[in-house]
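RECORD TYPE: protein structure
NAME: Polymerase nucleotidyl transferase domain-containing protein
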Amino acid sequence: MDSVRGRDKLETQYYLDRAVNLFKEEMGRNLVGVHLHGSLAMGCFNPNKSDIDLLVVAQEKLSAETTKRIIKKLLKFHESMPNERGIELSIILECYLKNFVYPTPFEFHYSDYHRNVQFCLNEYIGIANNTELKIEKLTDFANYMMGEIKNSIEIDDDFKSKAEPVTTPNPK
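PREDICTED:
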């Protein structure tokens, strides 16, 4: 945290401590560790532009209820942070670190993007393990984004006319 000075350094440390405590409270003995990486760890953190990057390691898979509680707390926590981009983190299982897998599977990922898109908690959790649900929700999201493109971004009419809703394939 050498690049963070004075008051900003104390404030950043305060939010790091709060983040670690959030995971201690929600994960208990399942929490192996919380590791700082990214710009803050490398000494080039800019409170006006950077996010705080964390890697949270769990001993075992998180329950859906634990994940929901973490999401709710992260949304509130993120809103309280003074840096523009807040926090970004992945929760991964310890077994993937001991026997490294690339790309490393994650239990949960959170970033500024997730906060802004406003995913419904029940749709967000479990989507990766349910192919039909994944197709349905990704289709909904694609249609939402196409609506956003059509309605709020000024683009040429030729592109708008070609932007069609995505249809869900029928699983056989």
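COMMENT: The chain has two domains: 6-121, 126-172.
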